[in-house]
Design brief:
There is one protein chain. The chain is α+β, with helices and mostly antiparallel strands and 167 residues long. The chain is 17% helix and 25% strand. It has helices at residues 20-24, 74-84, 91-96, 122-127, and strands spanning 29-32, 35-41, 44-49, 55-60, 100-107, 110-115, 138-139, 142-143. The strands form three sheets. The protein has a four-stranded antiparallel sheet with strand order 3-4-6-5. It has a two-stranded antiparallel sheet with strand order 1-2. It has a two-stranded antiparallel ribbon with strand order 7-8. β5 (100-107) and β6 form a beta hairpin. It is globular. The chain starts with 19 loop residues before the first helix and ends in a 24-residue tail after the last strand. The mean pLDDT is 93.
Length: 167
């Protein structure tokens, strides 16, 4: 039993269930509890960092799926990044990503994050961002403003889904 008034753990207003972001939304990389500065592929099957350290390219696993069965695609990663950098999310994302210049979709399963300066931690930082479906928050074929995605059941890719809830 817990107290919450929204399912969107990324917006500022309201309280989401504890640990919802970590349990429902996978990221490109997963960290290791016994190894600092390490990341292992989760949604991504491959990652490469440019020799100059100014970009990191991730290739998504073909078998990566959202809870609704849709494949996790590069445009979902871009949508998630753009949304997290938007006006309706916690400012902590903008602070953590201040040295990220942007994200490019290279093909259906490949994205490249561009960095403003060399920083060995940036590939791990962007690799740890949550990825959610572009379909989350759609209403009549249009995306709602992200701060209005409140009680829409998240379309995540993580190991857990939301079960029965009694409000």
């Amino acid at each position: 039993t817990s107290t919450f008034d929204k399912y969107n753990p990324f917006t500022i207003k309201g309280s989401a269930p504890a640990y919802l972001a970590g349990l429902m939304f996978d990221s490109l990389l997963a960290g290791s509890l016994d190894e600092t500065a390490a990341g292992y592929g989760l949604l991504a099957e491959d990652v490469s960092v440019a020799a100059d350290g100014l970009s990191a390219t991730f290739r998504l696993r073909r078998e990566a799926r959202f809870h609704n069965g849709d494949p996790v695609l590069a445009r979902d990663v871009k949508h998630s990044y753009d949304t997290l950098m938007g006006p309706h999310t916690s400012p902590a994302y903008k602070t953590a990503l201040e040295d990220v210049a942007g994200l490019d979709v290279l093909d259906e399963r490949t994205v490249r994050y561009r960095f403003k300066k060399r920083n060995r931690e940036l590939p791990l930082t962007v690799g740890g961002l949550p990825v959610f479906s572009r379909q989350w928050g759609m209403e009549n074929g249009k995306a709602k403003p992200f701060d209005q995605v409140v009680m829409d059941i998240p379309i995540g890719s993580g190991p857990y889904k939301i079960g029965p809830v009694k409000f």
